[in-house]
Amino acid sequence: MAARKQQRVRAPTARMREKAEALHERMAAMIPDPHVELHFGNPWQLLVAVILSAQSTDKMVNKVMPELLKRWPTAAALGAATQAEVEEVVRPTGFFRNKAKAIRETSRILAERFGGQVPRTMEEMLELPGVARKTANVVLGAAYGVASGIPVDVHAARVSQRLGLTKEKQPEKIEQTLCALFPQEEWIRTGHRLVLHGRHVCTARAPRCEECPLNELCPSREAPPKGTWRKRAEAEAREMESRAETFHRAVRGS
Question: Where do the domains of the chain lie?
Answer without folding.
Answer: 14-35+149-245, 43-144
